[in-house]
Amino acid sequence: MPLSEGFDRVRDAAHNAHNAGNKVIYIGNGGSAAIASHLAIDYSKNGGIRSLAFNDSSALTCLGNDLGYENVFAKQLDFHARAGDLLIAISSSGKSPNILAGVAAARAHDCGIVTLSGFSGENALRRTGDINFYVRSSAYGFVEIAHLSLCHAILDLDMGWGNS
User: Fold this and answer.
1) Could you tell me what percentage of the chain is helix, strand and coil, using 3-state DSSP and rounding each to the nearest 5?
2) Pairing label, strands 112-117, 86-91
3) Cα(164)–Cα(117) distance, rounded to whole angstroms?
4) What pLDDT digit, counting tens, does each position of 41-87 carry?
5) What is the mean pLDDT of residues 146-162?
6) Adjacency order of strands within the sheet including 24-28
């Protein structure tokens, strides 16, 4: 689909979740975790959309220790996700087991799913969402900044920025 259509679909999904009393949930590892935190607060503060990131250090280390690191997001989704929430899953490689398990858990809870991935065009995450953004690069920095830029562009356009 054209990028503008993907942007519109994410904007609509985020607003629909919020307007129904639900939330947008972000997950990511490393640099993608930083992007998840950044976006969750920006979408809440600037966009007025109920959002949070599942990367609290105590939750990650507790669940990683007790259940395995591959389950740190899936278990948090089991605790907190409800039908109608929107998951935004960010993974540069698109092959992180904990991100893939998080997407599966979100699907089991009837959440909408948006993915952002890079590296291989055949990565496992790329086709698991309702909306999938893919950056054709194997450079972490480029993929991460593209993911941040895509999500910021969606929010900024939603807020009417750039429409002057």
Assistant:
1) 50, 15, 35
2) parallel
3) 31
4) 999 999 999 999 999 999 999 999 999 999 999 999 999 999 999 99
5) 92
6) 51-53, 24-28, 86-91, 112-117, 131-134
Q: Are 88 and 150 in contact (CB under 8 A)?
A: no
Q: How sure is the predictor about 164, in pLDDT bands with cuts at 50, 70 and 90?
A: low
Nearest to 88 by CA among 42, 129, 135: 129
* Confidence band, pLDDT 50/70/90 cuts, at residue 1: confident
Alpha carbons 159 and 59: distance in angstroms, whole number: 32
Q: In sequence order, what are the beta bridge partners of 25? A: 52, 87
Contacts with 159 (C-beta within 8 Å, 6 or more apart), sequence order: 46, 47
> Tokens at residue 75, please?
């278990």
Q: What is the DSSP letter of 46?
A: T
Tokens of 137: 């690069």
